[in-house]
UniProtKB/TrEMBL annotation:
Pfam families: TraB_PrgY_gumN. InterPro entries: TraB/PrgY/GumN_fam (IPR002816), YbaP-like (IPR047111). The lineage of its organism: Bacteria, Pseudomonadati, Pseudomonadota, Alphaproteobacteria, Sphingomonadales. Residues 1-25 form the signal peptide. This is TraB/GumN family protein. Keywords: Signal. It comes from Sphingomonas leidyi.
Length: 307
């Protein structure tokens, strides 16, 4: 659904990543009037052979309204594609809610979430929840990974971010409207499982860090979106992934292993003719363990499309 902090999930995983799905399911959309459109030119790559073309597009799972990005080379690549591939195809909200409830609820015999946190992190958790209009015990019966996710998701509407403006929502709607084949590299259950199966100590560490950085969520996400809009994958990759890589266990599960599997998928897909538009969290397309880096191990070159 979470990488470096939950924000990597929001802007880059994803999703889970992470996951973006939860943002769509549980974060209220912003209610402010839509601003005038601003131009954005996110990075786009292509992998080709004689009869197969695969476009790679990095996404941000939640955006503020008013960014104009689904145009120019991005829209042209989408229009040329007969298949659209996302990290996952969003299930119905009721299905998501059932999966989340089952995975996120702590066993009855477990101590309260607050008791699992280091004592010096407990006041910050209470303060973060109070700022959201919630009691200090609101998340006590949930797993630490879910509490971290909610603390990263819930402020977004107040900060002007609207889940309905996310890249995947737009691409999914466009694919369905154009009757394109729509596929997912993973399932919602798999993405939730990435977090739910993390050792509890790592989940608590993740939550403690999210609480510590709670007041920085808005500025950090704004920075990521600006870098994404400017088509600067190197800067975006550093922002998204640098801190996560300081926790190798998280980086392996949420980033490197997934990127390797997706590169394997692309390598296999190159054996079939056609044109494919792949859209995954932008953090997966940056850095030394990016999807492109793993594609190189298959002797496949992803070339940046300049536009």
């Amino acid at each position: 659904m979470l990488k470096k902090k939950l924000l990597t999930v929001l802007a880059g995983f994803t999703a889970l990543a992470t996951l973006p799905a939860i943002a769509y399911a549980q974060a209220a959309p912003a209610t402010a009037a839509a601003p005038a459109a601003r131009e954005a030119d996110p990075a786009l790559w292509v992998v080709k052979d004689a009869d197969t073309t695969v476009y790679l597009f990095g996404t941000v799972h939640v955006l503020k309204p008013g960014l104009s990005w689904f145009d120019k080379a991005v829209k042209a690549a989408f229009d040329k594609s007969d298949t659209v591939v996302l990290e996952m195809v969003m299930p119905e909200p009721t299905v998501m809610q059932g999966v989340i409830t089952k995975a996120a609820t702590a066993p009855q015999a477990d101590p309260a979430l607050t008791a699992k946190l280091p004592e010096d992190a407990r006041p910050a958790l209470a303060g973060a929840l109070a700022s959201l209009g919630m009691p200090a015990t609101a998340l006590d019966r949930f797993e630490p990974w879910y509490a971290a996710m909610m603390l990263s998701m819930l402020p977004l509407a107040k900060l002007g971010y609207d889940p309905s403006s996310g890249v995947e929502v737009t691409i999914t709607a466009a694919a369905k409207s154009a009757n394109k084949r729509l596929e997912g590299l993973e399932t919602f259950e798999q993405q939730i499982g990435f977090f739910d199966t993390l050792p509890e100590g790592l989940q608590v560490k993740f939550l403690a860090h999210t609480v510590k950085e709670f007041d920085k969520i808005g500025p950090q996400l704004d920075k990521m979106v600006e870098q994404w809009s400017a088509g600067d994958p190197d800067a975006l990759g550093a922002t998204l992934n640098e801190e996560m890589r300081r926790t190798p266990e998280l980086a392996k599960v949420l980033l490197a292993d997934r990127n390797a599997r997706w590169a394997d998928w692309i390598d296999a897909r190159m054996a079939k003719p056609g044109t494919v538009f792949i859209a995954v969290g932008a953090g997966h397309l940056a850095g030394g363990d990016s999807v492109q880096a793993y594609l190189a191990k298959h002797n496949l070159k992803a070339e940046r499309i300049q536009y």
